[in-house]
Amino acid sequence: MTTTTTQPAAEQPKRRRTPRVLRITDENGKRVPAWQLVVRYVLLLAVLALMIGPFLWQLSTSLKGPHEDIFSSPPEFLPSEPTLGNFGRVADTIPVWDYAFNSLKVAVANVLTNCVGAALAGYALARMRYRGRKAALLAFILAMLVPVEGIIIAQFTTMRDLGLNNTLIAVLLPGCVSALNVLLMRNAFLNLPQEVEEAAFVDGANVWQRFTRIALPAVKGTLAVVAIFAFMGAWDDFLWPLIVLSDPENFTLTIGLNYLHGTFANDERLVAAGTIIAVLPLIVLFACLQRFFFRGVGEGAVKG
Amino acid sequence: MKTPTAIRATAADLPAEGASPPPPRRRSPRGIRRQLPTSPWLFAAPGLLVIGAFILYPFLSTLVNAFTDKRTLIPGEFVGLDNFRELLHDDMFWIGLRNSTLYVLGVVPALVLLPLLLALLVQKHIPGITFFRSAFYTPVVASIVVVGLIWVWMLDDRGLVNAVLEAVGVGKVGFLSDQWLLLFSAMGVTVWKGLGYYMIIYLAALANVPRELHEAAAVDGAGAVRRFLTVTVPAVRSTMVLVGALASVAAFKVFSEVYLMAGPSGGPAGEDTTLVMLVQRVGTGLTGRVGYASAISVVVFVVTVALMLLVLRADRKEDA
Lengths: 304, 320
Hints:
The complex is a heterodimer.
Chain A: H1 34-63, H2 85-93, H3 96-127, H4 133-145, H5 152-161, H6 168-172, H7 179-190, H8 194-202, H9 207-218, H10 220-236, H11 239-244, H12 253-263, H13 268-288, H14 290-303
Helix pairs in contact in A: 1-13, 2-13, 3-7, 3-10, 3-12, 4-7, 8-9, 10-14, 12-13
Chain B: H1 3-11, H2 14-18, H3 39-65, H4 82-88, H5 91-121, H6 129-141, H7 144-154, H8 160-167, H9 179-206, H10 211-219, H11 224-235, H12 237-252, H13 256-262, H14 275-283, H15 290-319
Helix pairs in contact in B: 3-15, 5-9, 5-12, 5-14, 6-9, 7-13, 9-12, 9-13, 10-11, 12-15, 14-15
């Protein structure tokens, strides 16, 4: 099919030539002088230490045994009595696995609603003709521009009026079809060649068939981006769940961590173990699906 | 292909959900693509419903509530400009406005410049560069709560940074106890978390800078700094404006970093409270002053829009 998505792998940065002898070339095939390369790697490693170091320090803290001095100066970078006991103790202190499950539920639901809702609305905006289409588009653009931080109180009272306060549904609802995702999907559909769908139309395919069999398979890449950012957004969200959830039973992981930090701030090992539990799934997800993360940022920036 | 069927299975449930308000029957005026008359609205309904009920309606009700004395459990009455008059005499509001403004001034220049330098650093396809790019992006992926708590521990009086500072003889620095150091530390965390995100945006922009420009400049004897200022910066200027706009709007609305590092009450005597923290503090709870919090939110809206216009206008001026 001509409409299949371009291979995202093609956008991945490629290694030019794996050096047998150390011979690195730049984009023009010119050799990069060794001293320049050394400077570059030194800088890269310095930034790496700054960006990854704090995560590793947190990991190290979470693995340190109860008798270790975590405050020593100069600091001990590696735990001398490594233990997983802190992770068990987090679970004794707060129901961290329940919180993680709550976060997972919201995140998965957010992925489903965003993919379905944004694909449908995006298709309606891109491919269908009806009176009021411009108004609908305008509504989504306006919604994208509204600063969410400014309307949380009104969102909260809306949820209370609906009797949804303090539920995971309330955590999910405001972002369950995000305007940005609708506009991303609209762009993806607009970039498809119209002829294929016209041909299907001539062959008697109705709008639903054209949508599911022709248009959707062709925008799988963008759909994946929407899915990933929907998952990450829901898993990482803090301000809105903080406002709408009051009962510790319904906490999501981020709110649970904040609670852990506020209540048991004295035990750094516990807080560290909690943050590792919260961040590890996303780092794994990111490691597996990097190219979609990077694509998403590009698309979101250009079209947002 | 198996994805479409999977999607169809879930999508098939949707018309029922979206059908709750029967959309007005409208016939396609041009009749180019005849379809079931209601189907476009059925397609758009879930999305429109969600943004209508949970974004646009709350936005409008915020604008309305700002002129009432509504509280969490009391509907409230129209009070005209009373809330805004009260704002003028509310010390906490001015503290919030000051801190949010300082945040923009501190964070935006760093987030416009540093990610560009970082993008230049990871631009060349040298071995292992994919790893470095991913590693630099990791803080973006992590939740702000995780990032905040990691840095709370790093900058603790007995944390890693102070342990190192003490070991090299500088002595302890109260990153999290001094009012100003706290705010600057939070800014640092915001920049640290944002670096990778804007780096990727710049990488995309840098890929479009014609190589010939650099070569020509090099032939003319321009050094690296000179080439950066005369070739790179002009070529990615529109991206810098975009990053500036995104970063300044985000910075003005800062909440989580300061909330986590300074605590819910905003540091010593609340001196580190930001505007959104104030909205959250004033507007929630059983006695939450919804009307007053909405008035603060309106200020947030106005400044946000003003910031956008300011940045975009700065762009246009440079064009002329």
